[in-house]
Amino acid sequence: LKDGTVVVILPDRGDRYLSTTLFASVCADCPP
Q1: Which DSSP helix (H) or strand (E) runs through 15?
Q2: What is the pLDDT of residues 1-32, one digit of tens each?
Q3: What pLDDT is attached to residue 3?
Q4: Rg of the chain on CA atoms, in Å
Q5: Which residue ranges make up each domain of the chain?
Q6: How far apart are CA 22 and CA 17, in angstroms?
Q7: Mind giving me the DSSP string for 21-32?
Q8: Contact 18, 30 (CB under 8 A)
Q9: CA 30 to chain centre
């Protein structure tokens, strides 16, 4: 990776991502 860009996404336990409509349809059995 000489001329590349590394992007790292660190979700905070993924709580705010599981509450989105995107994960709501994918993970219907996950706790709110």
Answers
A1: helix 15-18
A2: 577 887 777 666 666 655 566 655 666 666 65
A3: 76
A4: 14
A5: 1-32
A6: 8
A7: HHHHHH-TTS--
A8: yes
A9: 14
pLDDT of residue 4: 80
How far apart, in whole angstroms, are the C-alpha atoms of residue 29 and residue 26? 9
Q: Which of 14, 13, 18, 17 is nearest to 30 (CA)?
A: 18
| Pick from 25, 27, 2: nearest CA to 14 | 27
Model's pTM, two decimal places?
0.18
Cα(10)–Cα(17) distance, rounded to whole angstroms? 11
